Amino acid sequence: MDDKLYGLPFMRSTPIMYKNVTMLKDAGLDPSGPKTWDEFEQYSKVLKEKGKLGMTVPVDIWFYEALVAQSGGTMLSEDGKKATFNNAAGVAPVDFWKRLVNEGLIKMPVGDEAGDTADKDWANQISAFKFASTAGVSQSLEIAKGNGFELETAFMPANKDYGVPTGGCQLVMTSKSSAEEKAAAWEFMKWMTSQENTIYQHKHVGYLPTRTSAVESEELKEHFTQYPQYKVAVDQLKYARPRPMENGYPEVAKIVRDAIQKAIIDPKTTPQQALDEAAAKSDKLLGK
Question: For the whole model, what pTM was predicted?
Answer without folding.
Answer: 0.93
